[in-house]
Amino acid sequence: MVPHLVTALTGPINELEQRILESTPVIERWFRLEWMEHTPPFYSSVDVRNAGFKLAPVDTNLYPGGWNHLTPEMIPLAVQAAMAAIEKICPEAKNLLLIPENTRDTFYLSNLAQLQRIFYMAGLNVRLGSMSNDIKVPTTIELPGGEKVVLEPLIRTKRRLGLKNFDPCTILLNNDLSAGVPGIVEDLHEQYLLPPLHGGWPTRRKSHHFKAYEEVSKRFGKLLGMDHWLINPMFNQCGEVDFNTDAGLECLRSNTDALLGKIRRKYKEYGINEKPFVVVKADNGTGGMGILTVRDAREIDNLSAKTKAHMAVTQSGQAVHEVIIQEGVLTNERINSAVAEPVVYMMDRYVVGGFYRVHADRGVDENLNAPGSSYVPLAFEQSAQLPQPGVKPGASVPNRFYMYGVIGRLAMLAASYELEATDPDAEVYE
């Protein structure tokens, strides 16, 4: 059963789709050359929004959960990509240690079971090492589908990290370290730790990512002879905000006003009759917490105490002092009648699948990563890698998904630039 997907199959997005399809050989060669110079993140997922007049990433996750939403048809691609990724890092690898989030949420644990399955088929023994203080002995947790996962306590020696009778060459984090970097994963010089520690939220900033993405989108726009705004969400940043004391709200107000002005000019240029909006969120935030949609800068002067309290902390309870103000991108997609946005999943440099995040109670300009959202994996039932040349724009599902895959890979390339720029151990050549 494939859900009925209503997409914006008209307007400027069709021109963009046409341009991307006509340029497929050029695009693929460009990516190939980029990956000769840059290392893709080990895995990533990108939230994409299709407004009908622009198509842009709004969030890039370097520790993606949700692998359980990938359909069985997507798993072979994921396995092949995992093989390619491991081969580059540690070809002799036989053991992989996966470190998850500290949660017993069965939904999240099903994601771990799927990752275990992918890496097992890629030829690795995979075990789960928990950083939680509650896990003192191997603990089996039954999952709804009859599967189970075993969480084991980590064992740290002077130079290595592993489990009892399990010494891995590679350690994969599925934990974004938003609560801080625990000492147990620091100073591991003999093992590969992926993603690197500076990919976690204590170091990472969304504004760094979107700055890198802006650079990537400009180069890509030049390659295709198009305005990079069509694929790039503009943004501003404020670095010293305190929602509890109202400090820094002037910075937030003036930057919001300036960005709304820029969006208005773009809308006027393209004859777009929508009301511009921006999204304010923690610059180092996770998980869809503390997100504010603003259509007029004056709204910031009148924030309720409840909204301020909601904006003041991230999901892991960390205080928010840095925020990104991002151009709001509407989503014009629907599954049945509910608002939807595609999420593209990648491993190494390959698109391996995706799904639609759907939320029946949210509007086209709201964050969909919120309680009550559901996931429709079947929408990507056809590969994102097989465009159909010659089919008119907007008529072909594979073509639309290929385009989403291109945007996902641009965001992944930006993540690669970002990780290189923020690497504390980068070699400097004078």
Search tags:
430 residues; 3 domains; six-stranded mixed beta sheet; 19 strands; 30% helix; globular; disordered N terminus
Give the gist of this structure:
The chain is about 30% helix and about 20% strand. With about 425 residues, the protein is an alpha+beta fold.
Describe the overall structure.
The protein is globular. The protein contains eight helices and 19 strands. It folds into three domains: 1-62 and 206-233 and 337-423, no CATH class; 72-199, Glutamate-cysteine ligase, N-terminal domain (Rossmann fold), CATH 3.40.50.11280; 236-328, no CATH class. It starts with a strand and ends in a 9-residue tail after the last helix. Strands 1, 2, 3, 16, 17, 18 and 19 form a seven-stranded antiparallel sheet that branches. A six-stranded mixed sheet has the order 6-7-5-4-10-11. Strands 12-15-13-14 form a four-stranded antiparallel sheet, sandwiched between helices. Mean pLDDT is 89; it is low at 1-5. The protein has helices spanning 12-22, 24-37, 75-89, 106-121, 206-224, 249-270, 305-311, 397-421, and strands at 5-6, 43-50, 55-61, 95-100, 125-130, 139-142, 148-153, 155-156, 161-162, 170-174, 192-194, 235-238, 278-282, 291-294, 323-327, 333-335, 338-347, 350-359, 374-376. By secondary structure, it is α+β, with helices and mostly antiparallel strands.
